[in-house]
Inverse folding.
């Protein structure tokens, strides 16, 4: 089983899309094994997105991510990283495939409802940024 991190971003929380996002994951045979709502400080958002610190969008991204509550989750399943990214759609909602979360709900490239780890390496860092081992619950599979 592969694990990945997903975040329902502040725009998704504000628009009451938490359940919609999470149900799409579960409908694709992904399991939620950790979940919490948090409010990132600017400094915490900068730490999480440190990989982008030299990019021109870093300041606006971290301002946005610290603008309101987020729902962070750990998702598990076969090929979870790629499967989750397919469900989310392309970062730019104008390029996202029909029926993806970003195509259906995102308003722009930055406020695009949801985040998902892009590799197993980033998933390890991102999961540990928000969760300790006690907060991750093993689940049985039928």
């Amino acid at each position: 089983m592969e694990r990945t991190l997903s975040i329902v971003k502040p725009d998704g929380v504000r628009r009451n899309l938490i359940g919609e996002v999470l149900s799409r994951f579960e409908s694709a045979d992904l399991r939620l094994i950790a979940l919490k709502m948090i409010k990132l400080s600017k400094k915490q958002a900068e730490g999480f997105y440190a990989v982008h610190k030299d990019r021109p969008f870093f300041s606006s991204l971290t301002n946005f991510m610290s603008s309101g509550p987020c729902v962070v989750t750990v998702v598990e399943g076969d090929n979870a990283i790629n499967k989750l990214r397919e469900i989310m759609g392309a970062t730019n909602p104008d390029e996202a495939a029909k029926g993806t979360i970003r195509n259906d709900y995102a308003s722009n490239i930055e406020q695009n409802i949801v985040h998902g780890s892009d590799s197993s390496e980033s998933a390890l860092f991102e999961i540990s940024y928000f969760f300790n081992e006690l907060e991750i619950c093993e689940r049985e599979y039928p």
